[in-house]
What we know:
The protein is an alpha+beta fold and 88 residues long. Helix content is 31%, strand content 16%. It has a domain at 31-88: Nucleotide-binding domain of ferredoxin-NADP reductase (FNR) module (Rossmann fold). The N and C termini lie far apart (36 Å).
Amino acid sequence: MSKFFAxxxxxxxxxxxxxxxxxxxxxxxxxxxxMLAGGSGLTPMTQVADKILRTDGDNTKVTLLxxxxxxxxxxxxxxxxxxxxxxV
Length: 88
């Protein structure tokens, strides 16, 4: 996707749509949710995890595994550190 955008010229137009809601989250529907993400795919995962963590009475356990090419590539680094510190 990024190569596509990198090859656009000034003035080019791109059609976009979304977000497309595919799954409606229900508190406590699942005991444990495991999320896998890479690079910018972390963003939607943080939204789901944040919703779970901020919902009173939601006991869903969340495991988030993500990877980047380098440590400098980590998006939302502060949020990730906070999540680890307060998840115990």
